[in-house]
Amino acid sequence: MHVHIVNAHLTYPNWSEGALTRTMVEAARTHLLDLGHEITQTRIEDSYDPQIEVQRHLDARLVILQTPVNWFGAPWIYKRYVDEVFNAGLHSTRFLETDGRTRSDPSRQYGTGGHLHGRGFLISSTWNAPRDTFSNPGSVLFGGKSVDDLLLGLSTSYKFVGYTVLESYGLYDIFRNPSDVEVGIKAYGAHLDRQLAALDAPPSATPDLPS
After folding, report:
1. With helix as H, strand as E and coil as C, how does the chain read?
2. Range of the domain at 177
3. Which of 2, 78, 147, 166 is the most exposed place for a label (fewest CB within 10 A)?
4. Is 25 within the bounds of a domain?
5. How far apart are alpha carbons 13 and 125 in whole angstroms?
6. What are 140's strand-pairing partners?
7. Could you give the number of structural domains in the chain?
8. Per the domain annotation, does 211 fall within a domain?
9. Superkingdom of the source (predicted)?
10. Interatomic CA distance for residues 186 and 201, integer angstroms
11. CA-CA distance, 119 to 158, in Å (whole number)?
């Protein structure tokens, strides 16, 4: 399988240098290479060619976004990346041609026009927020919303062009609980294995996945 890993970290010197993001990218790369998969990588901060990124998405069966969560979203360079890469995929009609709706078939829904079905998209994110603040109705900030609810702005672009959105992975409370971070890094490979199995499962056997 071809896997494309996108590193969305944005460096803030003497504050946020991207070491944890690099560690997670390397953990995924090493684990997947050991399983015999082919890997391509893009570190957005180092620049990229949108046309090459379109081709990498077409080549890949799985795309992994590795990102810190800055002010409850990915760094702004990731929005630029999506705008440029997905617009290139739209302009060339390689990602999609329409939003899926047709006058001849009113049952076709918005968001069903993508060409990239059979591929998976996985978000691996790092948070200052503690794990127990998610899916918690008592959370003052999130009010019961899950991690995947809060990542919807990142995953929907991929779903729009046909990807299956796989279960995300996260490291939480990264500044206050470094021991939990170490455990989470070690457990990442097993999560990737489960998501690869879900992606390869026959459609009738594929478990419900976050949308």
Report:
1. CEEEEEECCCCECCCECCHHHHHHHHHHHHHHHHCCCEEEEEEHHHCCCHHHHHHHHHHCCEEEEEEECECCECCHHHHHHHHHHHHHHHHCCCCECCCCCCCCCCCCCCCCCECCCCCEEEEEEECCCCHHHCCCCCCCCCCCCCHHHHCHHHHHHHHHCCCEECCCEEECCCCCCHHHHHHHHHHHHHHHHHHHHHHHCCHHHCCCCCC
2. 2-205
3. 2
4. yes
5. 20
6. none
7. 1
8. no
9. Bacteria
10. 25
11. 10
Residue 143 lies in a domain: yes
pLDDT at 204: 54
Cβ neighbours for 153, distance < 8 A, ≥ 6 positions apart: 73
Q: What is the pTM of this model?
A: 0.91
Say how far apart CA 151 and CA 121 lie, in whole Å: 12
**pLDDT tens series, the chain, 211 aa:** 999 999 999 999 888 888 999 999 999 999 999 999 999 999 999 999 999 999 999 999 999 999 999 999 999 999 999 999 999 999 999 998 888 888 888 888 988 888 999 999 999 999 999 999 999 999 999 999 999 999 999 999 999 999 999 999 999 999 999 899 999 999 999 999 999 999 988 765 444 444 3
Q: What is the CATH number of the domain that holds 67?
A: 3.40.50.360
Position 84, amino acid: E
